[in-house]
Design brief:
single chain; 307 residues; alpha/beta; 8-stranded mixed sheet; 8 strands
């Protein structure tokens, strides 16, 4: 299979939210011709200003592109974009490649692979690990599942947006690995929240506690930046609480199917869910504030947090 380079393929990108918009911009910066679609037309304006072509709908985009990427909210959105009467599989030509980057269930990833194959479309699940800053810098980690030859052909695209990328196995393997990664991300944040509250309750200065904790070996790189933002009560979304909540649900459903007990994940999910009705668009690190409130450590007025 030919390499999917900027000089021989046209790209289509569906879903220009916090991550998708930044990834699309990286692809433009690397010389790819790009067709884009988002239900919110405002999300397409920055890409259009840089030379991207805004499609009227998914069907039009699918017929224009050789490679289609998507970064969508959940399984339902992915099924709508790909499988409905005016979706990708209805409009794309045989031979089109799909790189599906949304965090969804492995079952849905495998379903898309089968449906695509039935109409001559090759699909990789390419789950994203990394923050919005990593997306801007082209420093994401990509977790892929599918055909090895297709994975190798897609490497020029991966190199434009990621620092590292891995093939985990067949269809659904990439999204499975993403659930593994986000288990540690979510449970780790909950553990940090509890540890910080313990220190505060014992009389440690909050600012100093967060500063020192961020310099220890026990805090993962993904959480270090959270501590600096938490120190100034900044819970503006890099990874919104509602998306972490959705991923917790996917993780626990996957565990239930395999009859795997995950008590720590279940506990973290409960705290995340308790915070969700009030602050769903804030960053998932807001669970730390929630734990502070439960412990009576600090009265933090949500109106004073940075948004």
């Amino acid at each position: 299979m030919r390499l999917l380079t900027a000089d021989n393929v046209k790209l289509g990108f569906v879903g220009l939210g916090n991550m998708g918009g930044r990834i699309a911009q990286r692809l433009l910066d690397h010389g790819y011709q790009l067709f884009v679609y988002d239900r919110d037309i405002a999300n397409t304006q920055a890409i259009a200003a840089q030379g991207g072509v805004v499609s009227k709908n998914v069907l039009q985009l699918a017929g224009s592109a050789d490679v289609i990427l998507s970064c969508l909210t959940n399984d339902e959105a992915v099924r709508t974009v790909y499988t409905e009467r005016e979706g990708v599989f209805a409009g794309a030509r045989p031979g089109t490649v799909v790189l599906q980057m949304s965090t969804i269930s492995p079952e849905t990833s495998r379903e898309l692979h089968s449906l695509g194959a039935a109409v001559g479309i090759e699909t990789l699940d390419v789950a994203i690990s990394g923050s919005t800053l990593a997306a801007e810098q082209g420093a994401l980690t990509l977790l892929a599942g599918g055909d090895r030859e297709l994975y190798r052909a897609a490497e020029p695209i991966f190199q434009a947006i990621a620092k590292q990328y891995f093939l985990l196995g067949g269809p659904g393997s990439g999204t499975t690995m993403k659930l593994v990664v986000n288990t540690l991300l979510g449970v780790g944040m909950q553990a940090i929240a509890e540890a910080v509250v313990l220190g505060e309750k014992a009389g440690l200065d909050r600012e100093r506690l967060l500063e020192v904790l961020s310099k220890t070996a026990v805090v993962a790189p993904a959480h270090v930046g959270k501590l600096a933002r938490v120190a100034v009560n900044d819970y503006s979304p890099q990874f919104p609480l509602r998306l972490m909540n959705k991923d917790f649900e996917l993780i626990l459903k996957a565990a239930a199917k395999k009859h795997i007990p995950m008590p720590a994940t279940e506990a973290a999910f409960r705290i995340n869910s308790a915070e969700l009705p009030h602050h769903d668009e804030e960053d998932f690190s807001a669970v730390l504030r929630h734990m502070e409130e439960l412990a009576g450590v600090a009265e933090i007025d949500s109106a004073t947090t940075i948004s």
